[in-house]
Structure formats: structure tokens, C-alpha cells
Amino acid sequence: MAGQKHDLDEEDMDTSDVSPFMPIFEDFRDGLDEHQDRRERIIKASRDITALSKKIIFSLQRVRHLQQPVPPPIAKEIDTRYNSIKELFTTIAPDLQGINSWRYQKQISGGCQEFVEAISFQHYLETQRLITHAEAQALIPGGVELTADDYVLGLFDLTGELMRFGITNIATNGTLPRGTAAAEGTEGRDILMDLRAIRTSFESLDTSSGPSDFSYLKKDIQKKIEVMRQSVGKVEYAAYGMIIRGRERPKGWVPDLNEGQERGREPVESY
To answer: Which of 17, 41, 143, 167 is deepest in the core (most CB within 10 A)?
Structure first.
């Protein structure tokens, strides 16, 4: 006798046959969905913070003097963007509390580094000194942690902005940017002195100890140092050309940064 196929509806199924492990796997599913949503929120915020920080840097490159407040028109521009960045940090702050601050460190790291680059550039223009880790941390709201790696890597990138600032001043004013004198009868430091001091400090930085798997600084240090050296070297070369052959240059001359440079080097990080 031929068998007959019988389709069972859900109502016909015995609920006692449902695996007791189903609630556990449903919890896993919900946890993974929550993790993915949180991760995407942080990535998007980090990208927005990076973009706004770059715009702040663009505006600050129009400043022409050291140890003076940022001109009001530029200050107005950057204040608006700082407020937007603070809102982004505040929005994702609940997602970066406790163990999640390390779980999603890779996702927020790029935004933090770019933000450090922007605030350290403004701090240097106004005070002619580097911003400290504590000062930078205080500018990040919501309890979002600024790691030492992100702070140092942001300062590495700062050297590229100082290079552009110095080269632009040489091209437009014919002089290196210089701060006010610390004492009467003395000259203030110029930007090349500061860049050389930064280079010396970074070259003496020891990253050989500690677990490399959790240190972005240890992974990126060699590339960052090489780019930093190129930035300082370009300002040195432009200053030498200005001093030695500057009088032969026509008004409005812009130094050729590629002249005399070795080939095969990686370009300095640009916009």
C-alpha cells in the first residue's frame, strides 16, 4: 500500500520537541547583532570625526603667526566643527565603556589619532608647545579613553602639519615661523628648532618591550618615524635654500620640496 505524505503545520508540532538549547543560541544571535550594530556606529562616528578633524587642520593652515590666538574668523569655523566632534564622541560614549573601550579600540583609533593631530596643531600654534596626554584627554567628552598609542601616533602626524606650516611661511613671508622671545635680548624658537627636538625625542622612543599584538604604536612606529624624518628634512632643506640662495629668488618663490631628495621614499601623508 503506497504511503501518503503528510505535511505538518507548526500547530501540529509538539512543542516538547523544541531543543532546550534554542534560547541559548537565540541569546548568542542577539548578542552578535548588538555587537555588529555597535561596531558600525563606532566606525561611522570615527570616520566623521576624522573628516571634521581634517577640516579643522585645513582652517588652521591659514594661520600665519605663532604664540597668538587663532584669528576670529578661523576660530569661528573650527569651533563649529569641534562642537560636532564632541557630539559624535558623546553619542558613541556608551558603546565604549568598560571592556568595550578595548574591544572596539581598532574602530575608534583612526578618529582619535586625527583629533589629536588637530588639537595638538592648534595648541602648538597658540602656545608653541606640544599638548600633553592629559590635556588631550580632557578635550574628549563622554569618558571615551584616549590611549597612549593614539596620542603618540597623532603627534607623529602633527610633524607633517608643522612641515606644511613652515614651508608655507617660508614661501609667503620669506622667514621661518618664530615664537616670541622667552627673555629680553633673546630670540624665540623657530619651528625648525621645535621639529628637530621632536625628531630627537621620537627617535629615542623605545617600543621594543610590551606585547606587539595589542600595540598600534609598535606596529606603525618605523613607518611613522621615516615620514617624520622626511617632514623635518624638507623644512631643513627649505631653510637652507632660503638662507644660502634666498636673495637670488624672485618674490613669491616657492621651494621645490622634491629637489635634492632621494628617490624611492614614501610620500608624506597628505590630505
So the answer is: 167
| Phi, psi of 183, deg, nearest 5 | -145, 155
pLDDT of residue 225: 92
Among residues 115, 196, 191, 113, the alpha carbon closest in space to that of 156 is found at: 113
Whether the predicted pLDDT of 34 surpasses 60: yes
| pLDDT given for residue 269 in this prediction | 53
Closest listed residue to residue 64, CA positions, set 199, 170, 154: 170
Q: Is the confidence at residue 1, as pLDDT, over 80?
A: no
The residues facing 178 across adjacent strands are 190
Report helix angle 216-245 to 148-173, nearest 10: 10
Residue with the three cell numbers 571615551: 144
- Give residue 17's identity as a one-letter amino acid code: D
Measured distance CA(202)–CA(219) in Å, rounded: 15
Q: Does residue 144 contact residue 87 with C-beta atoms inside 8 Å? A: no
In angstroms, rounded to a whole number, what is the distance separating the alpha carbons of residues 158 and 181? 23
User: What is the reported pTM?
Assistant: 0.81
Say how far apart CA 60 and CA 200 lie, in whole Å. 25
Tens of pLDDT, residues 163-179: 999 999 988 888 888 88
**What is the rounded distance in angstroms from the CA atom of residue 168 to the CA atom of residue 70?**
17
Distance of alpha carbon 121 from alpha carbon 127, whole angstroms: 10
Q: Do the Cβ atoms of 188 and 181 come closer than 8 Å?
A: yes
Quick: pLDDT tens for 228-246. Answer: 999 999 999 988 887 877 6
